[in-house]
Structures are given as structure tokens and as C-alpha cells.
Amino acid sequence: MSKSIKLISQSKCYGGMQCVYEHESSILKCTVKFGCYLPPQHEKKKNLPIVYFLSGLTCTEQNFIMKSGFQKYAAKHGCVVVNPDTSPRGFDFPGEHDSYDFGSGAGFYVNATEDPWKTNYRMYSYVTGELPTVVQNNFNVNVGKSAITGHSMGGHGALISALKNPGKYKCVSVFAPISNPCECPWGVKAFSGYLGENKSGWKTNPAYSLNQYDATFLAKEYDGPKLEILLDQGEDDPYLTDKQLLPENLANSCSANKLINLNFRLQPGYDHGYYFIMSFMEDHFNFMAKHIC
Known about the structure:
The protein has 293 residues and is of the alpha/beta class. The chain has helices spanning 62-67, 71-77, 123-138, 153-164, 185-195, 199-204, 215-221, 238-241, 247-255, 274-292, and strands at residues 5-13, 16-25, 30-38, 48-54, 80-84, 141-151, 172-175, 227-234, 260-267. The chain has a 9-stranded mixed beta sheet, with helices on both faces. α7 packs parallel to α9.
């Protein structure tokens, strides 16, 4: 194993090991932690498939590890599961810790272009570039068999990562994603701070430009390999009612693009939290396994 990563903790779980590692990120220019579940198959087999999970607002790498119950299904399918933090840490920029939906714990999986964020808040490049390289260099994986999934802000991150990088991820699964950030309060606040106040530019940037980070717009112009997306949304999610998520806008874009097959499932009675995620985690792993296992 490379000396470039340091093991912070490990616990046996469903025959495998739930680990947390840290490393020095050249992209984020800070020490970064990520969770990594190594299934029982990791000791004997090479070229295991990879699932990346991106978390939502306020989360660290710990939330998904502790609350979702994914390890049972990762062990069943023999998937290495990697989940990063949601922002760089340790800078204390003015205003960085003032609110839950911007700054620390809220990197929004974009590459910031505005001061003081642009040097370190580059979560898009970290998730789609540096992190996969770290994983490939240190674990028995096949990066050609990767899937990406996420929740809320992390669902947004998973969607844009797949849509902006055709073929890199074999499928996408998302739980209550922020689907149209240019049109919702969370997204407008984050994009204004990280990308600048030119709101028209957020929408008109070409699909594969560095500064296009809205899945609803990206889906309209996606022209890569056939992409399968599973989207679960709780009907009793207060953020659905508050128009923070707007999955219907994404659904409209996907329906107009024959290269995208979106399975959009409204789940009666479920809200936005981890009980919802836990309830459908098995479905999502079964879905991803069809594409990468």
C-alpha cells in the first residue's frame, strides 16, 4: 500500500473492514479524510468494482459510514466503497463556518472561481480526479468498473460527475438530489459564493465546460454512452416542498434525451434523512451491481 495515505481507523464489518484514511491533497491543499469499505473479497481478489458515495450538507465522511447500513450490501456484491468529506477543512476563511449551507461541510462539489475559495474549494476535481487516482494506487480495484451515488448535495455531486464525464461511471444512483441548483435557494447561495454573481452564466455555460454544474442543464446536452440513473425521492421530504430539490426539472431534461434512462421513484411517507436512505440502500446497490459487478 502506498505511503501517501494513512490509516486512521478500521473496524471489521460484514466480514470486511470499514476504514478511514487520510492523505495530503494536492487539489484541496489540505489533509483530507475519506471512508473506504474493503469487502471480504478484497483480500483475495483483484480488480474489484468501486462505488463512490457523496454526502450532503454538514456531513463528514462519518455520516454515511455510521448511518446508512451500506456495508451489508457492499460485502454481498464485493464492492469497494469510497466516501469523501464534503469540503476541504482547516482554513478558517471569513464566513466559512457561519452557515450550514455554505463553506465548511458544503463544498457543493464544484471548483470555485471566486476568492477566497478558488484555491482550496475544488471538490469537483478532487472527487473526479485525485480521489480515484488515490484509490487506484492503494487498493485492489478496477477503475473501469465504477459507479457513483449520493444524497442531497451529494446527489447533485454524483449527477454532475457522471454527466460531465461520459463513461467514467457506469451508472448513477441518487437519494433526494439537489437536481437544479441554479433554480433553488441552496444552489443560488452556493453558486453565488463559489462561482460569482453572474447567474445567467451558470445556465448558459456549455455542458462540458468547467463552470457548468447543474444536472438539469447537463442532462439536456449529454451525448455520451447510455446512462442509467436511479433516483429515489421521499414524498414527505420538506425540502421537496420548499423547492430545494426540483427533481421534476431533471426528469423533464432526461425524458428529452434518449441517451439517459432515469428511473424516478417517489416514495410515500419518507422524508430527507438517513432512515429514508437506509430503507432503499439495498435497491441502490442491486442497481449498481448490475452495471459494475
